[in-house]
Task: structure prediction
Amino acid sequence: MLRKLSLDQTKIYEQTIATYEIAKMLVSFIKGQSHYLSVGAEQGDVDTWDDLVIQDKANHNIHIQIKRQNTDFSEDSCIRDTYTQHNGTVKLRDLSTIDKSMKALAEWIHNHVNDLKSKEFHIELPTSNIQFKKGLTVRHFKELIEVHYKPDVTTSQGLEQLANLNSKVKDIYYWLTTWCSFSDWDHILKLLSVIKIKDSGTETDIEARTNDLLSEVFSSNSVDSVKLNIKSYISANTTFTGAIQPRNLLYNLKEYLKPNVGAWTQYSKDGSFWNISGINDMETNQDIERPSIVVPQIWGSNLSQGLKVNFEPISGCKITDSLLRMIIHQSGTSNAHCQNKDRIKSTIDHSIGQTLGISQNDTDNISIVENTEIYTSSEFRRLINRSDSDNCSCELEKAMNIETWKKVSDLLDGKIYIMENKSSTSLRDKLEERWVIWRDQLKDNHKAIGILFKSMLHPVAEGQSIKGTFRVGPKTAEMLSESLFLLLIISISLDPDNAGNWNTISTKYNMVSIGLKYWSGKAESIRGVRNIDEDGIIIAGRERANVIIFSNVNSSPNELMDDLIDNSNELETNTIASGKTPELVISNCKKLRKLINQGDFAKVQEYIQGELKNTDTTIENSIREATE
Result:
């Protein structure tokens, strides 16, 4: 009975240590830090060293020997001797349990096929005060490992000299060579490079440390439930054929997480592969970090969301572009953790001409920090070829367009709702009617959304070296909603009876609404962030549409048209001679804003139609002056 009780206590101690190690793995994983890849048992290829086997790196395992030892392992001498049996036979003294474990380790180290750098061996005990052999305690061996052994410095000759001065080091030598099959100091030196002694304390001590760890990410009143779940998970999953991995375990514990625990997603380039891991998408236990779940989390959560990207920007790589766009618009207090952050920041600046179009210094708000903790997770989704990468990029772009659309739609709904309507609601009514049609056409059409929003944030005059899609996201949603608001108003004013196709008013007019406040200048010039208000004529001179709207230009349309015609030869395109001068240029000038606030659709329409006629008159006068 006492023997059975002792065995039960040993199992409880093993489970307590296993729970602590799994808690370390789980908490580090949840925090997005380097973590064990898996924790298992009975999976070791070294005899007796399989109480716990931890894979802490791709090609490195920790083998843990757990001994709930409160009494000495042996009272025998450090030098193994013989004894005479009752029948007169002389026999070597029997090995203790720890002697057998060390002997197995000696055999593994001696086998030259084995790579010493691939494994680490820990002995876990409650205390280091017990004896391996008479007069030789665990503490003496621990001091040799931690105090006297220095990797790449300590030599076998140095250990031999130390043994001549330190009797306990000499006893260690006798114990290891006569009991445990180590051959000499060279053999022992290799042992010291792979072994550690952990005097972890009692079950109560370990439980307390486990509680402290788990309480960092799990609510305090659920820590006991989390531990119980982990222990049940250990019983069900630690077999010779399986090991516990953090993401699968977290799926069973996610309900206990603290509400303020941030999540993370990591995209890593591994040779020709992409590996995707994280905890933003925990809706199922089969799918890992689907873009449709990740993007709203990265872009929309008020919590600190960690986006980790480990890659070098590659020209022409679609997934690289998608990740850069996601970095630009990361929300709240979140940071993008990037390998080589300066290179990433420089690539982004170059791609958007150092402006999102919001302000002179808006790229300063793109939060990128150096990723100082690059690691591999055991559970990831791998993109194995270009098609996989392109498909992933397509899904990311779709999710980003849809998420941007939701924000813009909400903002536009708000703008329509708070319209002043000082003298009438007719403008609002017409606007709502057209908006309902457009919203229904666009809400699920992510490609159309991308085309529309890119046209608002990337003037033709900027050239193809600017990646206008990068500007489309939550940070520019306010500008996009303003641009869309004015686009709707011009649409109903020029063609109030049209069915409401978002892409064209009629066969006569096609429109573009430029929503930028700032841009990077025309393509052939030296790049520099400039106010759109100063360069409207340059932009209008290059656009292909015949109705051009500037939602963030306050100059009057007449001023813009006069400048456009006066400088048409310098602009090289959309000239009077070529017949490509825009038929209408509209700005968000004071007069139009005043009419919109009054809310009378007829007056707004009269103003827009009047500007259309003014354009015709201005062009006719200019032609007449040019031919006289």
In short: DSSP finds 21 helices and 20 strands in the chain.
